[in-house]
Design brief:
This protein is α+β, with helices and mostly antiparallel strands. It is about 20% helix and about 20% strand. The protein has a single domain, classed as HIT-like (HIT family, subunit A). The structure holds guanosine-5'-monophosphate and zinc ion (ZN).
């Protein structure tokens, strides 16, 4: 499959790994928007949040179980933001479900 994040997960494209487990892979965003900007993805290819269903939600749950572990590892004791961009209006550019973990400074209140 011609998917950038599947290739990153497979190690075919290099990335700076932050965390991994059986279901989840996390790595630093190549164009960070905050001092900490990690992309957390299910290893299994899910195209977007709009493709989440009962058959793959365990992988999504695993992503969210990883969030506080990664936040702790990254020293985000003062809080952080988790963002998903979905589809055209959400400005999703990579069609493999991913959650942005942002922190390390006070983030702007405005989100949309
Ligand atoms: P989206 O806009 O789809 O929510 O987020 C895609 C993210 O992937 C962007 O923040 C972008 O900087 C990041 N990104 C795109 N290509 C690469 C890459 O090759 N490596 C890494 N580490 N991040 C990437
Ligand atoms: Zn993929």
């Amino acid at each position: 499959m011609d998917c950038l994040f599947c290739k990153i997960i497979a190690g075919e494209i290099p990335s700076t790994k932050v965390y991994e487990d059986e279901r989840v892979f996390a790595f630093r965003d190549i164009n960070p928007q905050a001092p900490v900007h990690v992309l957390i993805v299910p290893r299994r290819h899910i195209a977007s949040a709009d493709a989440i269903d009962a058959g793959n939600s365990a992988d999504v749950a695993a992503v969210f179980e990883a969030v506080p572990k990664i936040a702790k590892q990254e020293g985000l004791a003062n809080g952080y933001r988790v963002i998903n961009n979905c589809g055209e209006d959400g400005c999703q550019t990579v069609k493999h479900l991913h959650f942005h973990l942002l922190g390390g400074r006070k983030l702007p209140e405005q989100m949309g």
